[in-house]
Write a structure and sequence with these properties.
With 279 residues, the protein is α/β, with parallel strands linked by helices. It folds into 2 domains: 191 residues, Aldolase class I (TIM Barrel), CATH 3.20.20.70; 64 residues, no CATH class. Helix content is 41%, strand content 16%. The longest helix has 14 residues. The chain is globular. InterPro entries: Aldolase_TIM, NMO. Keywords: Flavoprotein, FMN, Oxidoreductase. GO terms for molecular function: nitronate monooxygenase activity.
Length: 279
């Protein structure tokens, strides 16, 4: 790919050496090498989802991406992952071009990552956190609204993005509910310089996702999702199904944490690999 585009002066494109300011969300069990590479080859930034991934598998995924593309890519690190220290060592050793972070405070890692030449983009749900990440040295901010899938904050994308844009000087990538060119245009109008999309790529041919799961996403409407987990301090947006309805009942009944864990653990894996979209 060569030649200028309308995004040639875009700070995200310049910083990450990509053609279009579109980032793949680092989805656990989904954002693997085939999908990551095809996004990067198309001019965006593919991002490996390392959540729940053993360090040796992360090494393999990075190698597979490099076999499939010579374009930049990234790794998403979930900071509450039990393997996080080993995962950080992997991305440092492999010198991946970019790291996005979620589920925790990456401040203690930012300096080492930047010393290795790695661009760091924390995902944040609030303006105060964006300011804190900029002070810690983040190269950019991913402002994620509550419309996103998975773990979410409480502020909508359309409200959150302009506030964070006004609060920091580093470039902002918007995330949450963005699924096409209209969404990209909308967040650019809000002051963001790029967009991260996750769910939009679930039905891609390269996504290692069961066809039943893909169909559940494609058939979803504006009323097909639910946010559970607020009573536990960990809100999550998912498609409404048998498990999420039971989870919501458990919240009303103030069940124990062990009961919630027993109900939910392994649900994403069952959907992705087995096509079980109800449990």
């Amino acid at each position: 790919m060569s030649g200028p585009t309308v995004f040639s002066q875009n700070r995200i494109c310049q910083m990450l050496h990509i053609r279009y300011p579109i980032l793949l969300g680092g989805m656990a069990h989904v954002s693997r090498a085939p999908l990551v590479a095809v996004v990067s080859n198309a001019g965006g930034l593919g991002v490996i989802g390392s959540g729940g991934m053993p360090p040796d598998i992360l090494v393999e995924q990075i190698a597979q991406v490099r076999e499939k593309t010579d374009r930049p890519f990234g790794v998403n690190l979930m900071l509450m992952d039990p393997n996080i220290e080993e995962q950080v060592e992997v991305v440092l050793r492999e010198r991946v071009p970019m790291v996005s972070t979620g589920a925790g405070n990456p401040a203690k890692y930012i300096g080492r990552l930047k010393e290795a030449g790695i661009r760091v983009f924390p995902v944040v749900p609030a303006t105060a956190l964006a300011r804190r990440m900029e002070r810690a040295g983040a190269d950019g901010i991913i402002a994620e609204g509550t419309e996103a899938g998975g773990h979410v904050g409480e502020v909508t994308t359309i409200v959150l993005v302009p506030q964070i844009v006004d609060a920091v000087s580093v470039p902002v990538v918007a995330a949450g509910g963005i699924a096409d060119g209209r969404g990209l245009a909308a967040v650019l109008a809000l002051g963001a310089e790029g967009a991260q999309m996750g769910t939009r790529f679930l039905a891609s041919a390269e996504a290692p996702v069961h066809s039943d799961y893909k169909q559940a996403v494609l058939k979803a409407s504006d009323r097909s999702t639910i946010v559970t987990g607020r009573s536990l301090g960990a809100p999550v947006r998912t498609i409404v199904n048998r498990m999420t309805k039971q989870f919501a009942r458990y919240e009303q009944e103030h069940r124990s944490f062990e009961e919630f864990e027993s109900l939910a653990v392994g649900g994403l894996r069952r959907a992705v690999y087995d096509g079980d979209t109800e449990n």
